[in-house]
UniProtKB/TrEMBL annotation:
Gene3D superfamilies per UniProt: FAD/NAD(P)-binding domain (3.50.50.60)
Superkingdom to which the source organism belongs: Bacteria
Signal peptide: 1-25
Record's keyword terms, sorted: Signal
Protein name: FAD-dependent oxidoreductase
Region annotation Disordered: where it falls in the sequence: 440-462
InterPro entries: FAD/NAD-bd_sf (IPR036188)
Organism: Mycolicibacterium nivoides
Composition bias, Low complexity: 450-462
Length: 462
């Protein structure tokens, strides 16, 4: 393995930071993870990751990337109690997207595995794996305060402050990675240092979540994963995930400013017309564990660092700090895992021009997920933003894919693989799929009028 430098520092030790550290550890003598929270042992909610109390799905593409970074991790998750959905049998998943309930009863031609576990459980397992890497050290309970540059305008160190009030210290490094999430301060730093701010794309989705952890008694829902996405005329949805230790998480969601209830009885009423009747019946007898949690997410944000004409040496940006996705599509952790693989590949080619090479590669990881999420968001007329012909066409076609997927398990499988970031969206344009989509759409046309293109919504994932 090529050694790129002596010391790399990663700011933020959530999923993004942990995965970046994993990639860096093979190329630097030492990697230091600086984290504001005091990190727990085991799966515990923490302040820096408030989203951990809400539905967190790991897409199959993300699971595959995690398994490449940490061989054996999926088996470990399963052994410790994560719910494993047999990749050859998707019938324990109930998915209703844009008003279409997908036919998941066929046997997929290739297995596509899904693991369900709470966010703290998954993060704790990844953290333990990173803790076990000999050259990674954690500096938790410390705030990253400021990036510092030398005379050549290379980023050379970061000022950190002990949260307990101890003295601040400057930590020098050959490379510093901002993995501090969507609130990361790199845009302001770049501007003050004369590099300019990265162009920023925002989609004001105004998502609100309320979630309740549950345990079922005798009446356990048949489906391990129930997910209902929004439609333009009803901008609300919900999910019920079977997690580890026989716990389940009910999340109710509103978009475009619609607020879900914040008490369990209200949440069950909210999903009454959305979820299968037997799931709603089971929810009525469920025991709540702790109190409901709420979260407001005003806008998806993508920062186009790769478009800056100049970027300082010694600095990278990673994970949500590059792109924070509308959470209803469940993409953030999976894209961070794909970015970690891209970082590993960039490092394997040496340290020259690393920043620009990695930011371009990361943009490639973000593109597909961002386009799918934005297309779906912009299918809601309430969400402001330009809708170029490409978005309208893609939404028009996706509506027909989902229509066909109600009956045709082959189309369902193709769509499921794309949505899970396993296959590229171009897979849905394969002539064999296009033929089935056309047949499915005309079958439906005989029984009901299809939605007008401008109103069609695409693929909320969870
Ligand atoms: C409500 C919600 C639901 C979501 N659901 C899903 C889902 O279903 N599936 C999915 O894949 N993704 C989901 N995501 C996204 C996912 O949580 C993130 O993509 C993932 O955590 C990776 O983000 P990150 O590590 O880059 O940033 P974050 O998770 O935001 O972590 C940033 C870290 O930096 C630390 N930090 C911040 N400032 C400082 C500082 N100054 N000094 C030191 N440390 C600092 C924080 O304490 C934190 O640990 C969801 C997000 C939200 C908001």
């Amino acid at each position: 393995m090529t050694t790129i430098g002596k010391h790399a520092v990663v700011l933020g030790a959530s999923m993004g930071g942990l995965l970046a550290a994993r990639a860096l550890a093979d190329f630097f003598d030492t990697v230091t993870l600086v984290e504001r929270d005091v990190l727990p042992d085991g799966p515990v909610q923490r302040r820096g990751v408030p989203q951990g109390r809400h539905a967190h799905g790991l897409l199959s593409g993300g699971l595959q990337a995690l398994a490449e970074l940490f061989p054996g991790l999926p088996e470990e998750l399963a052994a410790d109690g994560a719910t494993v959905l047999d990749g050859a049998n998707l019938s324990l998943i109930s998915l209703t997207l844009s008003g279409h309930t997908l036919n998941l009863n066929g046997q997929p031609s290739r297995p596509i595995e899904s693991y369900l576990a709470s966010r703290p459980f998954l993060e704790a397992h990844v953290r333990d794996r990173v803790r076990a890497i000999g050259n990674v050290r954690f500096l938790d309970g410390h705030d990253a305060v400021e990036l510092l540059m030398d005379d050549t305008r290379r980023v050379t160190s970061v000022l950190v402050a002990d949260r307990d009030g101890g003295a601040g210290q400057a930590i020098s490094a050959d490379l510093i990675v901002d993995a501090m999430g969507r609130a990361g301060r790199t845009p302001a730093f770049l501007e003050s240092a004369g590099f300019g701010r990265p162009p920023e794309h925002r989609i004001a989705v105004q998502v609100a979540y309320s979630s309740q952890l549950l345990r079922f008694g005798d009446d356990v829902p048949r489906d391990r994963l129930t997910l209902v996405g929004t439609v333009p005329e009803r901008p609300c949805g919900g999910s019920l995930f079977a997690y580890e230790d026989d716990t389940w998480l009910l999340t109710t969601a509103g978009m475009t400013g619609r607020e879900p209830p914040t008490d369990l009885a209200g949440m069950i009423a909210f999903v009454e017309d959305l979820f299968p009747a037997e799931t709603v019946a089971a929810l009525r007898s469920a025991e709540p564990l702790g109190s409901p949690a709420t979260f407001r997410y005003p806008a998806s944000v993508r920062r186009r660092y790769e478009r800056l004409t100049r970027f300082p040496d010694g600095l990278l940006v990673f994970g949500d700090a590059i792109c924070s996705f509308n959470p209803v599509y469940g993409q953030g952790m999976s894209v961070a895992a794909l970015e970690a693989l891209a970082l590993r590949d960039c490092l394997a080619r040496g340290g020259d021009d690393l920043g620009r090479r990695f930011l371009r590669a990361a943009a490639g990881c973000v593109n597909t997920a961002w386009q799918m999420a934005c297309g779906a968001d912009l299918a809601m007329p309430q969400i402001p933003g330009p809708r170029p012909m490409s978005v309208r066409l893609s939404n028009w076609y996706t509506e027909r894919v989902l229509t066909a997927a109600e009956d045709d398990p082959v189309v369902t499988e193709a769509f499921f693989r794309v949505m899970n970031l396993v296959d590229p969206p171009s897979r849905l344009m394969h002539p064999s799929i296009v033929r089935r989509v056309a047949a499915g759409a005309s079958r439906r046309h005989r029984t009901r009028r299809p939605a007008a293109p401008a109103e069609a919504a695409v693929a909320p994932l969870g």
